[in-house]
Here is the input.
Amino acid sequence: MAASLQDQLVVAISSRALFDFEEENRLFESGNAQAYMQLQLDRLDMPAQPGVAFSLVKKLLAFNQPGHHRVEVVVLSRNDPVSGMRVFRSVAAAGMAVERGVFTQGRDPFRYLRPLGAHLFLSANEADVREALGLGFPAARVAIGAQQAGHNHPDEVRIAFDGDAVLFADEAERVFQARGLEAFQKHEKRKALLPLPAGPFKPLLDALHRLQQAGDTPMRLRTALVTARSAPAHERAIQTLMSWGVGVDEAMFLGGLPKGEFLREFEPDFFFDDQTGHIEHAARHVPAGHVAAGVTNSPDSAETPRRRRSSKQA
Here is the structure.
């Protein structure tokens, strides 16, 4: 019988998102690909240190139990196959069961998301993330150098999401950008009972919801919505989640307060947001990734005074 990833949560991840390969990457970006490959060979038996998404991946894999394979992690990397050997040895040294990988030696890796049926793609390459989002896959550029996840919740995967342009489409954000905060609040109050369209990360939320329902596992999953929305705009976000038949365990409607300190208290293994300013602040406290989606990430968008000052920045 042919192998299949059906009914599994599939995470595709680049080697730099999973491990700290920044020293090696600097050599690669210098243009000396041969020296880079030789360095990886020289360090073949030296396990790489954890990267930004390491905790998320290791905890998700812990949902797999004998006879119940619920999560599949695939290394999807621009690395060459030789460097891939070090990646897999580092995976084994970390005690993680990762068996599949695609190494493209500098070519676009995102095209392999479709046959994988990936629910999430994490990479340090912004262009690859944008292409993946354009193809309809949840994807984020990891904030290299972000704070590592804590160790206070070894049996619980914690994931935090922004709302507009991440879980939800950017319909409301477009109103805010074009007409300001007052118009945004009126728009959302008027449409409070009308669900927001799905955003790029709804497929991941659905897959996590299915994983959350899995029994016979020592691992748990806790999710949070962390948004700059405030009352009365909060109601439409909650109504939308209810209409989808999924929920989050915590919801933070912060009205423009900086998210980082709240995320520090939630202690997620990863946080997703569409605005680089939020990611930069969050990364001081938790692992984070930028979702290059929505109106604030369009090629002609710019940081405006309204975006900097207003309490609606989600």
